[in-house]
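Session log. Operator J.P. requested a structure for one protein chain; no other inputs attached. Running the standard single-chain path with token output.
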Amino acid sequence: MLRRLLPWLPGLLIACLAAAAFWVGGDLRDAQAADDDRAAVLRAAGAHAVNLLSVSHRTVEADIARVLASSTGPAKAEYARNAATLRQTTAEEKVVQTGALRAVGLVALEGDTARVLVAGDAVIRWEGSESPPQERFHRWRMEVTRTGGTWLVSKAELVP
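Structure written below.
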């Protein structure tokens, strides 16, 4: 009986190794996809924070467009509602605000929704004013949602 199985043994061994490689490869692909999603979520939240913090009276239209492009749902609607006031105030006061991302951390990622904590700072100056620049420190709790294959901020809530 062993003599009859011996010719089949190398083929069986190869088939078993191939099945194991396929199974492990699938797990690796799943792990890589999860890592890619985590990185994309953090990039989206960080970019949105910098967009919120960076506005200039010279580029206010493009600045507003960047924030709207990096957001969706309630976050986008709220920002769009306040855009006219931001546009007017920025132009009248000749504001130049430069933002910097300080930290971003993933709280949870479940399916197409993630919760993220973000910290960023801004330096605000007013062109033509003798007022010294001011530093402002901002912290957000953001919800990031996959929309059409892209991660966008759907909620941005300032936290103390």
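Operator note: The chain has four helices and five strands.
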